[in-house]
């Protein structure tokens, strides 16, 4: 960095930290209600925030700090303008929720300052040294006036006061309720990680339980201590297995969990009680459920309760009783959204009920892959064993991070796996080399075994306890040996060993360096481009699956990838008719894809064949051979591979990629091609649920598209619509029947609702496909609609998720899409004051009134944040509302509903300003007042 750049960076850092320090001083003065001159503090804040606003463009995460400083400072200034003087006024302006949120926001920004840039950190330290955020003193701070959203259950209770009691409902069978709760606890990816963990190589871990003579003292110590831990209660209830990345921790945990001798030892511990074992494998590369405490608890509850369903009532007493009283229809429509708190309570209740008769041993792998506070999960596990000591054991594994070393390093029995694996790695390397017939002969011809021992010893020593390194090194040695010699003649043993040694000596001993060699240094530029394509496709799917919360789709299948790899398939996607895929097509596509994965990713990506597990409702009843191949998942062989790619490898791969390539566009195309290559006999039907998961993925991929020089997004989306429409079994009695209509509410609701014009276009609006919607409207030839039929206009769909996604698959409302719709009003896209009927209640509305209702609801439900520093939060929806104000009736009235009284448009905005003290909301209020004054003068 040159001197000018350093000076500019220091100027930015100084401005940001000065503004932040001033905001902290104001927070401390307000929460203490001290005699500090607030007016002087705010004068300083005005000056410092102006310096921040005057800064030019700043890079990366520094821009987030800049945005946050401006948001917080401007909101504080709005608060200050509401002060009339005196400490009493402070209580009215800064409520408890407000002040608590301010403290949290300042803490967030401080954390960003410490993490983003070294020079920023250096400047932060002296400036912020005296600006500590003090704990709030709530005694005299009043709670913020805020309407509480009591939820549907409380509302139903209130609405039935004074109504005669209904006849008690007929109770559902207990077994049915047990199954309902068990199915609600299950999730699609719950068995994925365990099934993907590499099984122990033949006999490599058998020494743990086979009573064989062990010469290595560390191995002997581990076997004795672990067996003693399984057998009795003398040792700590927690056993910790730790080891370097790639040392084989997950493989060991799976081995211990599934080994019958381990269960035999645990039965000794349980005595006359029964024994139950469950294993959970955290997986940072998997779905959110696979790396969260919610997923952990759902899995443990599901497994333990499945073994004894009679305990379901004990674990969920209130829920169980409530579900029994529901009718079948009510139960079908009852959605459970599991939260950590209720799952923890259920787990505690389950243990209280089960442990008097059953001892439980949990095997939990990969604590370091838990996405959350590691101390919190440590305390959770320790708390369980303290309460139930003698009846509950935990075998935990993790990397040797400081947080785990402090928690388990000296307080519980433990072992370092890399200290135990020398002989296992030696055996694995020998057995793997012997899989090649000619190398097997070569090793056999080494009569004194000196050359063999020397080679294998070098392999194991270079691995330094990392089993993954041995696996990759031996695979590369085999591949290079075949390539060099073509395995035709080996004139002398030395030549064979020399070939293997040459490869071994070329391999870096650090895993990250080995990954770089395999994927970058040992491949040509064109090969690396293909590798980049594979990685970017897998990464694109992770992003989209995470967004729509579909954990089953987190990893691409071979069949999905097969139609995303080749650029030449663009024409096929647009021109092919729907024809069942032949066995030859399936085999050719899948084999080409699998070969590409193996060659371009050098074994770092693996093809995992999905096997149905247990009796989950998600498991298919049968799977054909073609089905197994086409549904096989493409996964990383180990977490360290993904870690390296995310941290550094991805950017290096991207530098070789064609700038026109777009992974999301390819995956959208993949779905079109898969629709046109059905694996089963073609059937025209109306079962939208069979298509919709892939439709949601495809349309979300479409929203992420950036590079589309060929304007293919629109073509592929229309081809998808056309293909599904062809497969859809239309009703002859309904000429407007369309598959996309079925995505808008239940059949009963749609039958009574106003018509849905252009349903696929409406769905595209909900998915936020701005480019597609704008192009469709611009090219629409028949732009006519019946303005009096009450149908929902596009604008209303565009603002459906104004302040919150409401846990749906849809994105929050897009300012760019709303802006286009407002500025391009047509008969099919009428303006913000156009009247239509609510889809379910049939009450009259306009898009503008709907916006105001969304804001009122968001305030009541707590969806609006104080001092919102997220650019996609308040700043985003304020931009939308500001655009509406340009065209809308600012004198509009929002009618009363079940929860809120009638209120004017200006009243809604004023309510938000009074509640949140937001500068952005204040600016909208001023604009509306100006519009009202102009209208009144004109009148």
Describe the structure concisely.
The protein is mainly α and 939 residues long.
Description:
Residues 224-399 form the Nephrocystin 3-like N-terminal domain. Pfam families: DUF7791, NPHP3_N. Keywords: Repeat. InterPro entries: DUF7791, NPHP3-like_N, P-loop_NTPase. Residues 525-676 form the DUF7791 domain. Mean pLDDT is 85; it is low at 1-7, 138-165, 490-494 and 613-622. By secondary structure, this protein is mainly alpha-helical. The chain has five domains: 3-140, no CATH class; 174-417, 3-Layer(aba) Sandwich (Rossmann fold); 422-507, no CATH class; 525-699, no CATH class; 739-938, no CATH class. Strands 2-3-4-1-5 form a five-stranded parallel sheet, sandwiched between helices. Strands 6-7 form a two-stranded antiparallel sheet. It has a two-stranded antiparallel sheet with strand order 8-9. The protein is built from 43 helices and eleven strands. Helix 40 (847-861) runs parallel beside helix 42 (905-916).
């Amino acid at each position: 960095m040159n001197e000018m750049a350093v000076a500019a960076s220091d100027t930015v850092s100084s401005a940001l930290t000065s503004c932040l320090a001033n905001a902290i001083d104001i927070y401390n003065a307000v929460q203490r209600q001290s005699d500090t001159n607030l007016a002087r503090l705010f004068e300083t804040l005005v000056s410092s925030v102006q310096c921040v606003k005057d800064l030019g463009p700043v890079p990366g995460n520094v821009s987030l700090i800049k945005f946050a400083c401006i948001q917080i400072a401007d909101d504080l200034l709005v608060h200050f303008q509401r002060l009339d003087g005196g400490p009493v006024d402070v209580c009215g302006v800064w409520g408890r929720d407000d002040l608590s949120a301010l403290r949290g926001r300042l803490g967030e920004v401080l954390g960003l300052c410490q993490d983003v840039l070294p020079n920023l950190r250096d400047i932060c330290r002296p400036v912020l040294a005296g600006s500590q955020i003090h704990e709030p003193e709530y005694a005299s701070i009043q709670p913020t006036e805020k309407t509480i959203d009591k939820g549907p259950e409380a509302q139903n209770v209130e609405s039935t006061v004074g109504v005669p009691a209904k006849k008690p409902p007929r109770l559902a069978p207990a077994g049915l309720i047990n199954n309902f709760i068990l199915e609600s606890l299950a999730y699609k990816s719950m068995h994925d990680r365990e099934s993907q963990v590499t099984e122990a190589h033949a006999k490599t871990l058998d020494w743990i339980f086979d009573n064989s003579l062990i010469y290595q003292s560390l191995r002997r110590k581990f076997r004795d201590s672990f067996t003693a831990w399984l057998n009795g209660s003398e040792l700590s209830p927690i056993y910790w297995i730790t080891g370097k990345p790639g040392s084989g921790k997950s493989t060991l945990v799976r081995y211990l969990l599934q080994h019958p001798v381990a269960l035999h030892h645990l039965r000794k511990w349980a005595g006359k009680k029964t024994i139950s074992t469950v294993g959970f494998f955290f997986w940072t590369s998997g779905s959110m459920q696979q790396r969260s405490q919610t997923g952990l608890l759902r899995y443990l509850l599901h497994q333990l309760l499945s073994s004894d369903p009679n305990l379901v009532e004990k674990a969920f007493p209130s829920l169980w009783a409530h579900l029994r009283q529901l009718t079948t229809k009510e139960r079908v429509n009852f959605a459970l959204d599991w939260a950590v708190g209720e799952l923890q309570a259920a787990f505690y209740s389950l243990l209280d009920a089960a442990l008097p008769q059953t001892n439980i041993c949990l095997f939990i792998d990969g604590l370091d892959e838990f996405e959350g506070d590691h101390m919190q999960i440590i305390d959770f596990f320790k708390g369980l064993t303290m309460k139930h000591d003698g009846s509950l054991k935990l075998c935990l594994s993790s990397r040797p991070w400081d947080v785990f070393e402090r928690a388990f390093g000296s307080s519980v029995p433990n072992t370092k796996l890399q200290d135990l694996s020398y002989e296992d790695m030696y055996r694995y390397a020998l057995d793997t080399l012997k899989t090649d017939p000619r190398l097997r002969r070569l090793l056999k011809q080494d009569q004194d075994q000196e050359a063999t021992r020397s080679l294998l010893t070098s392999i194991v020593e270079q691995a330094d306890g990392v089993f993954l390194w041995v696996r990759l090194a031996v695979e590369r040695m085999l591949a290079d040996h075949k390539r060099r010699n073509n395995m035709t003649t080996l004139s002398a043993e030395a030549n064979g060993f020399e070939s293997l040694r040459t490869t071994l000596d070329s391999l870096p001993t650090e895993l990250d360096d080995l990954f770089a060699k395999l994927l970058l240094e040992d491949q040509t530029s064109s090969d690396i481009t293909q590798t980049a394509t594979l990685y970017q496709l897998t990464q694109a799917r992770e992003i989209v699956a995470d967004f729509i919360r579909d954990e089953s789709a987190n990893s691409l299948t071979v069949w999905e990838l097969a139609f995303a790899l080749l650029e030449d398939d663009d024409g096929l996607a647009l021109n092919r008719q729907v024809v069942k895929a032949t066995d030859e097509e399936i085999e050719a596509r899948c084999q080409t894809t699998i070969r590409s994965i193996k060659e371009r990713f050098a074994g770092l990506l693996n093809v995992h064949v999905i096997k149905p597990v247990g009796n989950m409702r998600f498991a298919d009843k049968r799977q054909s051979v073609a089905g197994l191949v086409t549904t096989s998942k493409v996964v990383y062989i180990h977490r360290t591979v993904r870690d390296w790619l995310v941290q550094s490898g991805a950017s290096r791969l991207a530098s070789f990629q064609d700038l026109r390539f777009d992974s999301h566009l390819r995956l959208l195309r993949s779905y079109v091609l898969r629709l046109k290559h059905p694996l089963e006999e073609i059937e025209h039907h109306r079962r939208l649920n069979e298509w919709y998961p892939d439709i949601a993925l495809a349309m979300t991929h479409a929203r992420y598209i950036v590079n589309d020089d060929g304007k293919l997004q629109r073509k592929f989306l229309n081809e998808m619509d056309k293909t599904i429409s062809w497969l859809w079994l239309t009703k002859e009695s309904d000429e407007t029947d369309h598959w996309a209509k079925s995505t808008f509410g239940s059949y009963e609701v749609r039958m009574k609702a106003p018509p849905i014009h252009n349903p696929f276009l409406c769905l595209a609006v909900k998915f936020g496909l701005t480019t597609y919607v704008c192009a469709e409207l611009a090219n629409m030839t028949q732009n006519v609609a019946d303005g009096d039929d009450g149908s929902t206009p596009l604008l209303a769909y565009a603002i459906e998720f104004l302040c919150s996604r409401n846990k749906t698959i849809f994105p929050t409302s897009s300012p760019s899409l709303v802006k286009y719709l407002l500025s391009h009003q047509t008969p099919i896209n009428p303006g913000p004051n156009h009247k239509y009927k609510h889809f379910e209640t049939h009450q009259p509305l306009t898009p503008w009134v709907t916006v105001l209702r969304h804001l009122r609801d968001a305030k009541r439900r707590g969806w609006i944040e104080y001092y919102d520093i997220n650019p996609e939060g308040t700043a985003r929806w304020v931009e939308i509302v500001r655009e509406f104000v340009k065209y809308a009736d600012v004198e509009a009235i929002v009618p009363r509903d079940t929860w809120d009284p009638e209120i004017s448009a200006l009243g809604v905005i004023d309510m938000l300003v009074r509640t949140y003290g937001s500068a952005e909301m204040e600016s909208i209020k001023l604009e509306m007042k100006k519009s009202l004054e102009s209208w009144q003068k004109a009148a």
